[in-house]
Amino acid sequence: IKRMADEALAAMGRTFAAAYAPAEKGGRPSIPPERLVKALMLMSLYTVRSERALCERVAFDMLFRWFLDMTPDEPCFDHSVLSVNRERLDRLGVTKKFSDRIVMMAIDAGLVSEDHFSVDGSLLQSHASLKSLKQIERLKAAAREPGGDDHGRGGDGGAGGVGNPWVDFRGQKRGNTTHRSVTDPEARLYTKTPGVAYLQHSMHVLMENRHGLGVDIRVDAADGHAERRGALRMLDRVKAKLGLRPATLGADKGYDTKDFLPALTDRGIRPHVACTSRTPLRRPDPRDHGPWARWLNQRRETSDAFAISQRKRKLDEEIFGWLKQFGGLRRARVTGR
After folding, report:
1. N or C: which end of the chain has fewer CB within 10 A?
2. CA-to-CA distance for 293 and 283, rounded, in angstroms?
3. What's the Cα-to-Cα distance from 235 to each of 204, 225, 288, rounded to whole Å?
4. Cα 250 to Cα 273: distance, rounded to the nearest angstrom
């Protein structure tokens, strides 16, 4: 893993040159951005719960020091370095470019299917608490007031004080149209099953079917439409950045819509999407693109290629399972997308 990571990072010299802080700004010496990227890798591979815990482990773990190209007596960087540089790494797209390099290495090794892909989505719970929900109108009113700030303790219906105050939402209706989290404004109340809706983001993976390698990943708003929207954006991106042109795309029933299937056809991709309707659809007018695409997709359902795509697409769940069980994404570590 270290050899592959170093090879990918070595090819990103121009990106990292832009990531270094200018010397004239003064302050502490810059920590190599390459080291920060590999530190984030260690957090995922070893399920380190926080950046502070990561720095504590680097202080005594020789394996971590070797992976980060640190000498045994070199002082470890402070955990705040990761927080300060997160925005800079995101602005330069460092982790996305690093991921693309790894995928390109897999393509060169013949490990990536050039024709058959799958897509799926899952929910990522926000780092914000339900207590952080406040009425949007109240937030707007506070913003209009000079020096106004509605980040105070207590939330809607809560008692004041310090620490972790009691917040009572009994009898109040909360929704994305009326309430927003002050901790993570990009999070949305969402659930796929009946019950309590939590503050969530949605994450989506585009996977090749040969070995189940995720070739692209995207985090979007949890609004019920993000799966189809994210899938099309990932397909366009891997075509432009990686030169991948899928011939088929497997997906679950959530993608069987009259707007998504024609969008795949327009891109020259044959949908292998699980059908929502179990009864045969009536043959529509070919000029009505949405129903026609759904009818054609249902006709393919009995083919061997369709069945293989439906079996392979379940490998997406292994990616999500690893991310949530081991990669530390059962709940996001930071706020925002």
Report:
1. N
2. 10
3. 12, 16, 24
4. 5
Angle at alpha carbon of residue 184, lines to 142 and 20, rounded to 5°: 110
Distance between CA atoms of residues 201 and 123, nearest Å: 6
Q: Which of 216, 194, 193 is closest to 205 using CA atoms?
A: 216
Helix (H, G, I), strand (E, B) or coil at 92: coil
Q: How confident is the model at residue 153 (pLDDT cuts 50, 70, 90)?
A: very low
pTM: 0.88
CB 137 within 8 A of CB 185: no
Rounded percentage of the chain residues whose pLDDT exceeds 70: 92
pLDDT digits (tens, 9 = 90+) for 198-243: 999 999 999 999 999 999 999 999 998 999 999 999 999 999 999 9
Structural contact between residues 126 and 114, judged by C-beta atoms closer than 8 angstroms: no
Per DSSP, the residues of 126-157 read -SS-GGGEEEHHHHHHHHHSTT-----TT-TT
Place of tokens 């029933």: 253
User: What is the spatial distance between Cα 38 and Cα 17, in angstroms, rounded to a whole number?
Assistant: 17
What are all long-range contacts of 269-273, with beta carbons under 8 Å and residues at least 24 apart?
269/235, 270/300, 271/297, 271/300, 272/248, 272/297, 272/300, 272/305, 272/306, 272/309, 272/310, 273/249, 273/297
pLDDT value, residue 154: 44
Cα separation of 138 and 149, whole Å? Answer: 10
Dihedrals phi, psi of 33, to nearest 5 degrees: -60, -30
- Helix and strand element counts for the chain (H, E): 13, 8
Q: Which residues pair with 167 in a beta bridge?
A: 158
Integer Cα distance of 297 and 153 in angstroms: 53
- What Cα–Cα distance (Å) separates residue 187 from each residue in 98, 184, 230, 232? 26, 6, 16, 22
**Tokens in use for 144?**
């209009």
